Amino acid sequence: xxxxxxxxxxxxxxxxxxxxxxxxxxxxxxxxxxxxxxxxxxxxxxxxxxxxxxxxxxxxxxxxxxxxxxxxxxxxxxxxxxxxxxxxxxxxxxxxxxxxxxxxxxxxxxxxxxxxxxxxxxxxxxxxxxxxxxxxxxxxxxxxxxxxxxxxxxx
Length: 155
What we know:
four-stranded mixed β-sheet, 3 helices, alpha/beta
C-alpha cells in the first residue's frame, strides 16, 4: 500500500469566525491565513474551484477564517461558522504550554502562566478557574474560555 500524505487541521465551530481569528491569532502567535496566490480573497478562490454560490453565505471568505503558524510548525486552525451556539463543555480543548514544564520551579511557572492569563484576558478571554496544587504534585494551570466560550488551558 502506498503511504498517504496527511496534514493536521484543527477546526473550531463558531458563530463569528472573524472574532475568533483575531483572538486565536494573537493567543497562538499565528497569523491570519492569506488566500492562495492569484486570488484576492478566499471567496474568490473557492468560487474559482467550483464551490457553489449558495455555500458562500454570510460573507464567507471575504476575510480570513483560518490562521496558520508563521513558522510552519503548528497545525492550520479553521473557524467554521455554524448556526447553533455552544451549549456544553468541550470534549477536546487546547493546552497552551507556556510555563516551561516540571523542570521549571513552580513559582516561575506560575508567573509565566499568570502573565499569559493577563495577556489573553485583555484580548477577550475569561478565566473559569485555577488548578493550583502546590503541596502535592506542584501542578499549576488556569482554565479559560475564548470569546465564544470554548475552554482552553494555560499550563
